[in-house]
Amino acid sequence: MNKRHLAYRLLALLLGILLFYAPFALLIKAAAQLLESQGLIHVAGDVHRACLRMPINWAFLDPGKLIARVLMNPLYLSVFVLAVLSFFLAPLFCGWLCAAGNIPEHLNRLVPQRLKLDLRGKLDPTPVRYGFLVGFILSPALGGSIACSFCNYSQLQRVLSAVFGDFHALAYWSSTAIITFFFWFFVLGVFLEGGRGWCNFACPAGALQNLFHWLGAKLPFTFKIRFFKERCNDCGKCVDACPTWAISEAPSSVRVNRLICNACRDCVATCPTGALDYSRG
Amino acid sequence: MEISRQKIMALLLFVLALSVAVAAGYYRESLRKAESVHFGLSFPMDRGGKQVVLYYNEQGILKKLLQPGVVEIGTHRIKNAGKRPYVVKLELVNLSPGMEVVWETNQLAWDDATKTLRRPVRPRESFGMDWIFYIPGELRDEPVIYDGGLRVIDAETGEPLAFLPIKIVNRR
């Protein structure tokens, strides 16, 4: 892959950590300063303050609770702001800033190919992703909420806190935290082709953003990955480069799955003929 | 024919993934009283009316294998239900010798040395606290591992504001 593109993505990953994760959490802390009157100033800033999971449950099952929580902490609107941005710009947060998705993906590049489970082209992630999203939304009403207990952002926060000196963050592991870490980081992360298995199959925030992107991409003024058939030489490099398996080969063409694509632009950076582009149209 | 096969496969995957998410919720719920018990407590009101019980021997297999002897009891809702602000001090009573407890909170004003929140909690405001209990090996098979509770105290006057009984037991 184009080294400059990879460097940009790694810089974006670093920015994602600095903005959302303790001990930095610059965006969260800046919001806390602005929202001093709401009491957010009293709590330590970490990724939980801008939870991308619970508000999805509240929105569908208990809108009153969502409103009450947002009045206390407007950062709970983050997932819906990201969804609206995805409508116009594609899910750039997922592809560029989300550390929980990007870290397994980048570490995956270091793992020898023979050690990776390769389901690209064999398993369509779309029905799995949206089945899980519906299950995630319904789970509090049917069995029990999985928003916190199976949260990969939370696991990453614990690890980052420990890396930066707060070893108490790793003091307690529940069964669900162990399962989440194992699947998010290892099985669906560094040892699955592309490293984006958790995003593809089990991330409700990503699924919601892609749903909005899928709708927005139908309009001519929105940004998306676009394919120019006349420039394509059928080399297939974009298919292999896509970490989310969003690009598939079609006769003399390729197809971009808007319900999976996170606009990381690896395909654009890999294409030798400029047949793919991130632009309006 | 091929398209309908793809559609059936997509439908099956959709239902399977939905079921996995719902089953994960059931699994989490089955462990709720064994690994990580959460509760709400209001002060200056609750004076022992309810009890928090954690069933230590009903932890999940992964937890038993990878991290036995460590359980969490916590709350996001220690709430000032009174009419004036309070500076509160918390106390876990009747801890067994050798049982270490780590106190975890996101409150910036928390003083871990004195177990006091060094700012007034306003009426209707709540805050969270987690306690990670390290249960020593010799206590893990006892019928009652911990029988104590959480006391909320007015740090300025020393007056008790609330008490919540907490038990960690092995259910036979």
Keywords:
heterodimer, A: 281 residues, mainly alpha, two-stranded antiparallel sheet, two-stranded antiparallel ribbon, 14 helices, 4 strands, 6% strand, B: 172 residues, alpha+beta, Immunoglobulin-like, four-stranded mixed sheet, 2 helices
Report on the structure:
- The complex is a heterodimer of chains A (281) and B (172).
- Chain A is mostly helical and 281 residues long.
- Chain A has 14 helices and four strands.
- Chain A has a two-stranded antiparallel sheet. In chain A, strands 2-3 form a two-stranded antiparallel ribbon.
- In chain A, a hairpin with a 2-residue loop joins strand 2 and strand 3.
- In chain A, helix 3 crosses helix 4, helix 3 packs across helix 8 and helix 7 packs across helix 10.
- The model of chain A has no long low-confidence stretch (mean pLDDT 94).
- In chain B, strand 6 and strand 7 form a beta hairpin.
- Chain B starts with a helix and ends with a strand.
- Chain B has two helices and ten strands, in the order αββαββββββββ.
- Chain B has a four-stranded mixed beta sheet, with no helix packed on it.
- The mean pLDDT of chain B is 92.
- At the A-B interface, helix 8 and helix 10 of A face helix 1, helix 2, strand 3 and strand 8 of B.
Structure, briefly:
Chain A is mainly α and 281 residues long. Chain A contains 14 helices and 4 strands. In chain B, a hairpin with a 4-residue loop joins strand 6 and strand 7.
Can you lay out the helices and strands and say which pair or pack?
The complex is a heterodimer of chains A (281) and B (172).
Chain A (H helix, E strand, L loop, with lengths): L2 H18 L5 H9 L19 H8 L1 H10 L5 H12 L2 H6 L1 H10 L16 H18 L9 H12 L11 H16 L6 H6 L1 H13 L6 E5 L9 H5 L5 E4 L2 E4 L9 H5 L5 E5 L1
Antiparallel strand pairs in A: 1-4, 2-3
Helix pairs in contact in A: 1-7, 3-4, 3-8, 5-12, 7-10
Chain B lengths: L1 H30 L4 E8 L8 E4 L5 H6 L3 E11 L7 E6 L6 E5 L5 E2 L4 E2 L8 E9 L9 E11 L5 E10 L3
Parallel strand pairs in B: 1-3, 2-10
Antiparallel strand pairs in B: 3-8, 4-9, 5-8, 6-7, 9-10
